[in-house]
Amino acid sequence: MFKQLAQKILDPARADRLFRIAVLLSALLLPLVMTGFFLQLGWSSAPAWREFGLSLLWSTEWDPVANRFGALPAIVGTLLTTSIAIVAATPPAFIIALYLVDAPPWIGRPLSQALDLLAAIPSVIYGMWGLFVLVPVMQNHVQPFLADTLRMKHLPFVGEYFNGFGILTAGIILALMILPYISAIMRDVFRMTPPMLRESAYGIGCTRWETAVHIVMRYGARGLLGGVFVGLGRALGETMAVLFVIGNVAMLPDSIFAGGTTIAATLANNFAEADGLLRHVLFALGLVLLVMSFIVQLFAQSCLTATAAARGEER
Amino acid sequence: MDPFAPLEDRRRGLRFRKFLDRMVRVASLAALAAGLGGMLWILYTVVDHGAGALGWDFLTEPSKPYGAEHPGIANALIGTLLITLGAALMALPPALGAGIYLSEFGRGSRTAHWIRFSANVMMGVPSVLVGLFIYALWVVPTGKFSGFAGSLALAVIMFPVVMRTTEDILTMVPDALRESALALGMTRARAICRIVCRAGRNGLVTGVLLAVARVSGETAPLLFTALWSDGWPTGYFREPTSNLPVLITEYATNSPFPEQHAAGWGAALVVMTLILLLNIGCRVLFKEKKHV
User: Fold this and answer.
1) Mean pLDDT across the stretch B216-236?
2) What are the chain B neighbours of A115 within 8 Å (beta carbons)?
3) Taking Cα atoms as reference points, which of B170, B192, B168, B174 lies closest to residue B120?
4) ipTM above 0.90, yes or no
């Protein structure tokens, strides 16, 4: 009987089917884990929602002693740092991609690989560099320059007071971190544009810049947007680099020089010591962050697949 | 009417357009210089601050409580290796399998489409949330922080990355190889394991090593799973396990002592050197594969 069993398993056709089922099962692990994320965060945060209702999302209170919590400061901080990062990183990423894709390979390849290395540096090192190097530079040079020399302190949302830490510093670090991601995707989009289109543009006398703006940007607009969204997703959830430089105060920032916090930084800062209601609130914040990054990914993927599909790639 | 006026206008236009083009090119070089300059600045800072801390003692002594003299990083180094190795052991088999499914069985199928979609979503999930997830899934039920929990978190991060690279690499293997293998009478399983995977071996190794390099510097998911400790990592399954990224965080933010700051920079230098070596090594060693 044992022999029969062994024969059954060793039978090539059966082994083939087994193999197929095994790889399918391991592939199905992924959607399972993804659903698990939503279920688990929803489940663990349920008491917080029951206690505060949806007002958790727009309350600005953060008082662990009185057990009153609101997520608005963290949400606003997340959105502000992310917007600064995107605004600061997208234009350079675009023109870098533009230059690198047409550069001769002997210079283009090493440069783009060096740029990829920028993405390989762990975020905790960005954070440490930010804390010990960028914060003093911001405090002593950049922020006085912006506030006093450029007289921006009279503008709304630019504060008079600064100490180097805060939303702006976090945004700048994030910009540096997401630059290589956005640039890499934009490079691919430039490459995807049919050479015929670009060469035709050159043929009628367009300059490189005109080709990029009128041809490639038209053709690959959604892909470029997808790249921006991928960068957005990374900036939203980045924890360590932000944690080190944002100042970690759970208050609505009144200017971009002010200290603040983000969802990810709040989690990293409080979770290990939290218990009771605070812990559930932190899970609720996690759920908010998960939903935000899920939506961003949805946009990113729909943009990128649309570009690929326009070119007839079935992926 | 001056017959030359329009021509001159056009000329000025051309000059302006060329000027604009050149300006954009200069701007792009400047942006590139800013990006790479930022990177070099970070590298320089880490080397500058970290090199002084390095030494034989630093690499062989365990970390010490705040304020103690001559802190080392040996326990954290071993802990990081353990945690990363554990993550790789857990993530690789299913991730390679899933990649094989996508490239060999799932071309154009709906299931594969959804799996690919969830992989992309998972790659975008902030790593701190992975820590939260594993905390609730493993740390709470078992009642202990442990290095194994950290490995679980890193495995969740590695899985989609390795899966997508596997798929990309295997899709590049020409179909003629598959067809020849099947024509020789191999089963599909055998053809995939013996022929297709072997053809893509270099790419697979590169992909795996890059994924390992990427997770070995992850900090946020370890904060609530592996935690950290000053002891040697003897209780991988039972106790908080020291590791380099969290050690750097602790030393840089929670310690007022310059000794600890220096040790933090030293640890950062070690992590960065390892990661950059892995990255550059892969690119140099398997360069020819990239042009396929």
Assistant:
1) 86
2) 32, 35-36
3) B168
4) no
Identify whether residues B29 and B154 lie together within a single domain.
no
- How confident is the model over B152-196, as pLDDT tens digits? 999 999 999 999 999 999 999 999 999 999 999 888 888 998 899
Q: Is the model's pLDDT at B81 over the cut of 90?
A: yes
Number of structural domains (chain B) is 2
- The pTM of this model reads 0.89
- Within chain A, which residues score under 70 in pLDDT? 1-2, 7-10, 160, 308-315
Q: Which residue has the higher pLDDT, B8 or B173?
A: B173
What residues in B contact A23, CB-CB < 8 Å? 97-98, 100-101, 104-105
Chain B hits for A243, CB-CB cut-off 8 Å, are 253
Query: How many Å lie between the alpha carbon of A131 and the closest alpha carbon of chain B?
Result: 8
Report whether B220 contacts B156 (CB < 8 A): no
CB–CB of A233 and B124 under 8 A?
yes
Contact criterion met (CB < 8 Å) for A267 and B275: no
Name the residue among A24, A34, A92 with its Cβ closest to that of B35: A92
Domain range spanning residue B14? Answer: 5-50
| Rounded distance between C-alpha atoms, residue A108 and residue A92, angstroms | 16
Residues B19 and B108 grouped into a single domain: no
- Interface touch B220/A20, C-beta < 8 Å: no
Q: Residue A311: its pLDDT value, please?
A: 62
Within 10 A of A280 (CB to CB), how many other CB atoms are there? Answer: 21
Residues B146 and B231 in one domain: yes
Comparing alpha-carbon positions, the chain B residue that sits nearest to A126 is B42
With bands split at pLDDT 50, 70 and 90, how would you rate the model's confidence at B59?
confident
Q: How far is B215 from chain A (nearest CA, A)?
A: 9
Superfamily for domain range A54-310? MetI-like (1.10.3720.10)
**Which residues of B fall within a CB distance of 8 Å from A294?**
121, 124
Inter-chain touch B98–A23, beta carbons under 8 Å:
yes
What is the nearest CA distance from A234 to chain B, expressed in angstroms? 7
Work out the average pLDDT over B195-221: 90
pLDDT of residue B78: 92
- In chain B, the residue whose alpha carbon lies closest to the alpha carbon of A283 is B132
